[in-house]
Amino acid sequence: MRIILLGPPGAGKGTQAKLVSEKYSIPHISTGDIFRKNISEKTPLGVKAKGYIDKGLLVPDELTIDIVKDRLAKDDCISGFLLDGFPRTVKQAEALEDFLRNDNQTVDTALLIDVPSEFILERMTGRRVCPSCGASYHMKFNPPKIEGKCDDCGNDVIQRKDDTEETVKDRIDVYEKQTQPLADYYKAKDQLFVVDGTQSIGDVFKTISEHIGSRK
Ligand code: AP5
Ligand code: MG
Ligand code: ZN
């Protein structure tokens, strides 16, 4: 399965991606996680990306598209992948389509996790993430089993720098202007599936799993 996850900041893309990638044994590729790893390692890409991410802006397509192409060319993507947070612009979606077409492939489904903006701020400010494995928690909705520690690897969980109220508002704005048009893009190709992201984490996953099961 070649799956794309769309949705506003805090929709639960990372949370669901982890569950889906474990269930279907496909790699979870998050452009946000790739950028954050590069930022923490202070690579040239990380230095360039940081300025945009800290402001809640998109990293330019020229920097983003090639990273994803390189990642999708790796062997573990042969039988499928789950893209979390890419594409985010129509240009990125077209580049992905061209790339897959070279191998006679297409996206199987674009899952849009739909969450109205009034839910987002509470999700973002309560979020804690594991800097080591990328797992995402919420102090109220999905706390780690041991306070402050990642369930999977035991590292200290931290708050993301772009999860402040001010930056979250900018990220929602950017989402509405630049990424929301992708819903129509995938709808026109009959690839869009919208799931109500205000349900519990378990119910969102159940809906997504049923949909994936029906496409296999
Ligand atoms: P990215 O890391 O992708 O951030 P995002 O899209 O803003 O999404 P988030 O990771 O904030 O939210 P999520 O949907 O993964 O939610 P989560 O599962 O954590 O990108 C960061 C930045 O990188 C961008 O702003 C941009 O600058 C750059 N970037 C990345 N990709 C790019 C691209 N392709 N092009 C250009 N620039 C790019 O859940 C959120 C919280 O809610 C958690 O605490 C979780 O526990 C909780 N939660 C999840 N589901 C539920 C539920 N059902 N009920 C209650 N709580 C829930
Ligand atoms: Mg995420
Ligand atoms: Zn971890």
From TrEMBL:
Pfam families in the cross-refs: ADK (PF00406), ADK_lid (PF05191)
- Tell me where it mainly resides: cytoplasm
Q: Where in the cell is it found?
A: Cytoplasm
UniProt GO molecular function: AMP kinase activity
Q: What is its EC number?
A: 2.7.4.3
Q: Which InterPro entries is this protein grouped with? A: Adenyl_kin_sub, Adenylat/UMP-CMP_kin, Adenylat_kinase_CS, Adenylate_kinase_lid-dom, P-loop_NTPase
Q: Which EC class, in a word?
A: transferase
Q: Which residues form the Adenylate kinase active site lid domain?
A: 127-162
Segments carrying the region annotation (LID) are 126-163
Q: What keywords is this UniProt entry annotated with?
A: ATP-binding, Cytoplasm, Kinase, Metal-binding, Nucleotide biosynthesis, Nucleotide-binding, Transferase, Zinc
**So which domain of life are we looking at?**
Bacteria
Q: Which residues bind AMP?
A: 31, 36, 57-59, 85-88, 92, 160, 171
Tell me which residues bind ATP: 10-15, 127, 136-137, 199
Identify the residues that bind Zn(2+): 130, 133, 150, 153
Q: Does the keyword ATP-binding apply?
A: yes
Q: Where are the annotated segments for NMP? A: 30-59
| Pathway info | Purine metabolism; AMP biosynthesis via salvage pathway; AMP from ADP: step 1/1
Its UniProt entry gives the catalysed reaction(s) as:
AMP + ATP = 2 ADP
According to its UniProt record, which protein family does this protein belong to? Belongs to the adenylate kinase family.
**Function description:** Catalyzes the reversible transfer of the terminal phosphate group between ATP and AMP. Plays an important role in cellular energy homeostasis and in adenine nucleotide metabolism.
Q: Which NCBIfam families match?
A: adk, PRK00279.1-2, PRK00279.1-3, PRK14527.1
Subunit comment for this entry? Monomer.
Free-text comment on this protein's domains from its UniProt entry: Consists of three domains, a large central CORE domain and two small peripheral domains, NMPbind and LID, which undergo movements during catalysis. The LID domain closes over the site of phosphoryl transfer upon ATP binding. Assembling and dissambling the active center during each catalytic cycle provides an effective means to prevent ATP hydrolysis. Some bacteria have evolved a zinc-coordinating structure that stabilizes the LID domain.
* Full protein name: Adenylate kinase
> Which organism is this protein's natural source?
Clostridium aestuarii
Q: Which gene encodes it?
A: adk
